[in-house]
Amino acid sequence: MNYSCIAVDDEPLALEKMVSFVEKLPFLMLQATFDRATDALAYLTANQTDLLFLDIQMETLTGLDLLAALSRRPQVILTTAYSEYALKGYEFEVADYLLKPYSFVRFSQAVNKAVKRISEKVETAEPAPDFFFVKADYRLVKVMLADILYIEGMRDFRCIHTLEGKILTQQTFASFETQLPVNQFLRVHKSYLVSLSKIESVEKHRIKIGKALLPISESYREVFYRTIGK
Fold it and tell me: Which residues of the chain have pLDDT under 50?
């Protein structure tokens, strides 16, 4: 089973090390990296992830401030050079705490703790629904996840392209990204969110789904190619 994650650290070398360690574990899927906690907060408000690697000491907004601001928290592994923050971190029920500089062995131990927590939570949770409802005109329309090809932004509307046809709704992309499973659907452009299972081919930064050729914008390419690569 794969687990999605993001990494947050305002020190370039520390972030690079964190990413290199993540890439050594094939079951981790890195969605994004951030050097500012404010950017990470904006991302997590609109997107889901399984695991958050988070530095504590950052300017403007600290890692602990970020955790306090989240209404829905993933499993968290804190990193810092200051051991006195460990106790405060555990008040947020984090999975583990890495004191810099940490080794890959210690990093792996922390990840295993977090993954175990995620697995235990999944085992006790009710099965996720395979559908959701969207408001279209003056009615609620049931949409099966398996029927979705891609979602297209069209000015004030989003068009859900399905196997059965098209559904127009004013629901935002941010709302879709909180409803749709992150391991099945991915944003590839400011105007497109695609079903990974419906992708037929990728060529010259364009995705073929049925008769449609959808662009992969530069800001989403790294996460997209890393995701389909795993």
Answer: none
